[in-house]
Amino acid sequence: MNVLLIGNGIHASKRILPALQKIKNINSISIFDRNEKEKVNLNEIVEILPYKQLHDINHNYDLAIIATPPYNHIPSYELIKNNCTKILIEKPLTHKYDQISCESIQEDIKKSKLIECLMYFHHPVWKEVKRLITTKNIININTEFSVPHLPENSYRYASSKGGGSLLDQGVYPLSLISTIINNSYKILDIEISTENGYEVDLSGKLSLKIDNKIDIEARWALGMEYKNYLMLKDDEGYVYEVNFFYSKPDLTNTEIAVSRDKSFHNIEVGVYDQFEIMYTDALSKDLSEFEYSNLKNLSLRYSLVKEIIENI
């Protein structure tokens, strides 16, 4: 298996590349990086090449991963789409929500060639959460993904590069919401805010009722205390809580805390590298199995993004 990786920033070097190197049937990993001037061989299977060489790409790849700042996601996809069997784009798929309606993009999504990849859906804890949602009468969902401020030169503070908390942290809870909506939803409240000196949004909240029975409150932020959790409550008073639900530090032993009144127990899930699982799934399965990123789900996700942005 041959893999193409576009982007070699902190996320790629810390999460993506180590996960790929754990997969035994990968024969080569070609990293295209804007900072490289000439080819560099890291080891027997990993090479780094100048990004400009993508314009003259003449190899075929089984899997491509685009991990650049959001403004460069679709341009990179256009350069490689004819040379790659499957293409994963790190969230957000695009920094312009209306690009999801582009005919060529929709066709590749329908053909299971292109998806917006979200690693937390591949962790076994998602299967447990999905089981709870489908077997218990869940009446309330509360979730948040917030992180402290990043270095000032991060693209996340540049609107022209697809920055802002909504398209970064916010995509996680919005993807959860769009995945569990079956029929209908009603938005109850939208909040989105920034601070003086910033050109992008820094925090937001979305409250809605889905399928006329589940109340959801989702929050996200850039520049606040770190929070990363999902909490469900059913009609019998049981509360199910998962910490580190979206992003997970290395060697995190994931579990679901279950409580009601004074009773308490854990559903053990275990230690997994959700990136390794995601890329293994992408190489071994048809991308149509990635239900969270089918056209219906993506269209709903970015219609929520549109409604939030238009509320600014």
Name the descriptors.
32% strand, 7-stranded mixed beta sheet, 15 strands, Dihydrodipicolinate Reductase, domain 2, 312 residues, 8-stranded mixed beta sheet, alpha/beta, Rossmann fold
Please give a quick description of this structure:
The protein is α/β, with parallel strands linked by helices.
Provide structural commentary.
The chain is α/β, with parallel strands linked by helices and about 300 residues long. The chain has two domains: about 120 residues, NAD(P)-binding Rossmann-like Domain (Rossmann fold, 3-Layer(aba) Sandwich); about 150 residues, Dihydrodipicolinate Reductase, domain 2 (2-Layer Sandwich). Helices cover about 25% and strands about 30% of the residues. The chain has an eight-stranded mixed β-sheet with strand order 9-10-11-8-12-13-14-15, covered by helices on one side. A seven-stranded mixed β-sheet has the order 3-4-2-1-5-6-7, with helices on both faces. A hairpin with a 4-residue loop joins β12 and β13. The model has no long low-confidence stretch (mean pLDDT about 95).
